[in-house]
Request: fold
Amino acid sequence: MILAAGVVLWRPATAGEGGSTALEIALVHRPKYDDWSHPKGKLKRGETLAACALREVKEETGQSCELGTRLPSVQYLAHGRPKEVHYWAARALGGTFVPTREIDALLWLTPAEARTRLTQPRDRELLDALLATTAH
Reply:
């Protein structure tokens, strides 16, 4: 079993009349798979799942974040091997994105735009879980 951790990264955004608060969701693009997803990555030896999630979001987005509500874990086959990814909601605290070979783009989108852009249905389910648990 491959263990991994990730986040559904969000930040408050002012939108609409009267300055109502809305959320923006961060999505990353992986050129190797040409997909859009939430930041995530494999657990390193001796690392906790929470530490892995924080490290991966920093590596992939440049953002520091605060882990919030635990979201559902996702299980699937990755190259024929079972993989389990543990997710959290995470509020972005700031940082600067620098493209790499692994992640070449970062977008901040409204939840509706993120839903359309996400490649995998399981990632849309994580977005729904975030929206159901995050006060916004």
